[in-house]
Amino acid sequence: MDRRILILSASVGSGHTIAARALEESLRNRLGIERVRTLDVLETTPELYRTFYDDAYFGLVEAVPWLVGWGYDANNPPFKLGGSISLWDRINTTSTVRSIREFRPDIVLCTHFLPARLVSLMLTRGSFSTRLAVITTDYDFQGLWLSNTFNHFYTAREETRAHLIGLGLPADRLTASGIPVRAELGRPLDDDARAAVRARYGLEDGVPTLLISAGAAGGGYALGIVRQVRELTADFRAVVVCGRNAQLEHAVRQLVDGHDRRFRVLGYTTEMPELMRVADLFVGKPGGLSASEAMAAGLPMVLIKPIPGQEERNSDFLLEEGAAIRCNYDTTVGWKIDRLLAEPGRLAAMAEHARRIGRPHAAGEITSAVLADTREQLWISHAAQRSILASSERGIAPSDLQADRRIRTLVDTGTGRSVGLITEAQRRTVAKGQRRQVDLGRGGRHPAHREH
Amino acid sequence: MEDDTRLTVSTEALSRLRRRRIDPFLLLTLRNILGPYTELTFDVRG
């Protein structure tokens, strides 16, 4: 039977939407699919709510980044806010729920936690049926992504998967897939294509190319980076991408006037995959998607001003793997890049590390797995959610919790796959209820037996 | 000796548990796990 697939994202920044598009692209020309639709759930919500989610968030990042970091940490333990969504979210997503229902998806893929939690709520109420795959878009896991039911959970890296297993989640429901990016990033350009891109942007062989993502860094800070790069002693070529920020593009152009030979200033471009594959160094913020794209292209990064919380953690991962350097001082960006360019061996080693951790085929691997997965969902009881939360907050394994609170995984005897998480106290309660039934002479069925 | 590595869940047992007013969210979870079946037996791990 041909299936209907709904990909849900939320346009808080561009990363979640780019990941959704990469998933959509990977589904193109696949057999057994009736229709694929990608929906930005914020487009279906009231303007006030949308503003709160998007503009207010980035306003806070700009004005009080420490508060954003605090908020991230405060909500980091899974199920801190329960396994469902708040009343505020429910009120504002009634149109979203209608859109999801009307599409009648056989499979839902979520690249943001809001729709993941929303679909989870719809499933829990029992009035809606689908398979739910949750795909995280940062290298670290944040608790908000975990809801009380899902079919499969895709993490960006192995350590995150190990963390979730450590909290009591069943391994067969978790895959370290990488973050979905455009697969072309992993395909090196051939000589002709490379030469054409270089010619188009005035890049020279033998002279290092910097790709500066100014749009993501935003406003005054982006100008600071360009000022620093302008003072490099090493020869270089820089492509400065300002995105849809026309004001910033104009300011950068004014700034580099007279330095045309070294700088090329762009607004929004569709050629990022090509630019990433001809550049030698990416200068910008470590958003989950930007970083994953750079790694897929084997492009080392200079990390600037990570947002406290997820970007700080992305930064940790990239530094730990040797694929990036980080500038903590606005004043030393140029100095650090100069030092790096003076050591071509080091730059080559960083590119090698980037390629090693890059996952250019993540989108295709995720959608192949989702299409092949015919299992029922995993359900997590409220008590088990509280045990996972306690485990996370206290930094101990669920097996070390008080005996009654230990997490027990229910495994389907037929398929050998996990279907539910309950606590030991809950298991005893159910076993007692079932025993009474057996005592009354109505039990005794074969263990693997299923009755409709 | 109770076998804590196996658990049978049935709609009948859930009805009895509901009458005993146990955690409604546990009942909801178990009902969702049962899906269209009236009885299922699980291995219990962890």
UniProtKB/TrEMBL annotation, chain A:
Protein name (database record): Processive 1,2-diacylglycerol beta-glucosyltransferase
A single GO molecular function term of this UniProt record: hexosyltransferase activity
GO process terms (BP): glycolipid biosynthetic process
Family annotation (SUPFAM superfamilies): UDP-Glycosyltransferase/glycogen phosphorylase
Keyword field: Glycosyltransferase, Transferase
Pfam families, alphabetized: Glycos_transf_1, MGDG_synth
Xref: Gene3D superfamilies: Glycogen Phosphorylase B
Domain Diacylglycerol glucosyltransferase N-terminal, chain residue ranges per copy: 16-181
GO cellular component: membrane
Protein family (similarity comment): Belongs to the glycosyltransferase 28 family.
Domain of life assignment: Bacteria
Occurrences of domain Glycosyl transferase family (ranges): 238-356
Top EC class of this enzyme: transferase
Residue ranges with Basic residues bias: 443-452
Its EC number(s): 2.4.1.315
Annotated spans, Disordered: 428-452
